[in-house]
Write a structure and sequence with these properties.
The structure holds 2 protein chains of 2 kinds.
Chain A lengths: L10 E10 L2 H16 L3 E7 L5 H12 L5 E7 L4 H8 L3 E6 L8 H8 L9 E5 L16 E7 L6 H4 L1 H5 L3 E5 L12 H9 L7 E3 L8 H14 L15
Parallel strand pairs in A: 2-5, 2-6, 3-4, 3-5, 6-7, 7-8
Helix pairs in contact in A: 1-4, 2-8
Chain B lengths: L2 H16 L6 E10 L6 H11 L9 E7 L2 E3 L23 E4 L3 E10 L1
Parallel strand pairs in B: 1-2
Antiparallel strand pairs in B: 1-5, 3-4
Helix pairs in contact in B: 1-2
Classes of the chains: A alpha/beta, B alpha+beta.
Chain lengths: ~240, ~110
């Protein structure tokens, strides 16, 4: 009740909050990250448009590694487990996260999917996000690095159109470079210029999963990220089999 | 469209804060959204109008304060023009986003009986 004059009107009370909307996701992502660091697992969030070549990049990675690193993957798609199946054929232990209508993975979806896997035995864990250049950009999953796969046919100005996604990328893999010879109108110089205007530290590797071009540089980048992982901290205060 | 899932997270936070004031109705929800936050304010509004039904915020208005993106050199603090390469022309230092990625619940206005 209004205490000023006792008029019986309801009182309006301001409540200051100043809290991130994604606070709950970020907290869970940090929890994932602590688990990954504790076990020396390099978690990489692989994003990009549908059909940009995310799965093909991971298949080529498995082929090139010849089992030298233990690689696991979780693959997010609205429907089907086709990507996870493809990765299993390529020798990557993988699980599908079927999101239904959700356009992105969040920290909880990744966390829950990992409960069914021996993720802590991985050297590299790929989180293949839902194909989308918008929504996945703002959800932290607990990864050590963000990779955006952008194929040469998508248009050199894509970074300018989707700046949030590219700003958060640690690496852009320009894929399907074997097609460039057939595409006289594609100018990769324009793509590099667009990346310089969206990424403060542009890092780009041009890759063809078909011919293997750029795959050694990509593997070297992964090793560099592994070397950068913080030393495993004190053990987490609960086991990773919790509910 | 991730705006709908963001609004669900927002309403959870709103409900938790409103619960501290039994019987209160939420009249106003204020957000701060940066231009580089990766959300479309108009879509947040639409999603909010759908999702607020049957919550303590059913009659609340959503007010969104927008923050323009601003890049600057972390060394000399020079601000960058929009669309410029994200490296300081003077120092060669990679620029830093100093404003524009906010996505925050600022405050509520509650109507207390």
């Amino acid at each position: 009740m209004c205490e000023t004059c006792g008029c019986g009107d309801h009182e309006l009370v301001p409540v200051e909050i100043h809290q991130r909307l994604l606070e709950q996701n970020d907290r869970l992502a940090q929890h994932n990250r602590e688990h990954f660091v504790e076990h020396g697992v390099l978690a990489v969030n692989v994003m990009g448009s549908p059909g940009s070549g995310k799965t093909a990049l991971l298949e080529a990675t498995a082929r090139a590694l010849h089992g030298a690193r233990r690689v696991l993957a979780v693959s997010g798609d609205l429907a089907t487990d086709h990507d996870a199946q493809r990765l299993r054929v390529a020798g990557i232990e993988s699980r599908a996260i079927t999101t239904g209508t959700a356009c992105h993975l969040d920290a909880r979806l990744v966390h829950d999917a990992l409960h069914a896997m021996e993720w802590w035995r991985a050297d590299v864990l790929f989180v293949e996000n839902v194909g989308n250049l918008v929504c996945p950009a703002i959800y932290d999953l607990g990864q050590a690095a963000n990779v955006v796969v952008l194929s040469v046919t998508e248009g050199e100005d894509k970074p300018l159109k989707y700046p949030v996604m590219f700003r958060r990328a640690d690496l852009v893999v320009v894929s399907k470079t074997d097609l460039v010879a057939h595409l006289p109108q594609v100018d990769l110089g324009r793509l590099h210029d667009a990346l310089a205007r969206t990424m403060p530290r542009p890092r780009v590797i041009e890759v063809s999963a078909l011919t293997g071009q750029g795959i050694p540089e990509w593997l070297a980048w992964l090793e560099e990220q592994r070397a950068r992982l913080p030393a495993p901290a004190a053990p987490h205060d609960h086991p990773h089999t919790h509910g | 469209m991730h705006e709908y899932s963001l609004v669900l997270a927002l309403l959870e936070q709103v409900e938790a804060h409103a619960a501290a004031h039994p019987g209160a109705a939420v009249r106003r929800v204020e957000l701060r959204v940066g231009d580089q936050a990766g959300v479309v304010p108009e879509l947040l509004q639409t999603a909010f109008e759908v999702a607020r039904e049957h919550t303590p915020a059913a009659r609340a208005e959503l007010v969104i304060e927008r923050v323009p993106a601003r890049w600057a050199c972390p060394r000399c603090a020079r601000g960058l023009e929009e669309g410029e390469p994200l490296v300081c022309a003077t120092c060669g230092e990679p620029a830093r986003l100093v404003a524009g990625d906010e996505l925050d619940l600022l405050r509520l206005e509650l109507e207390v009986p």
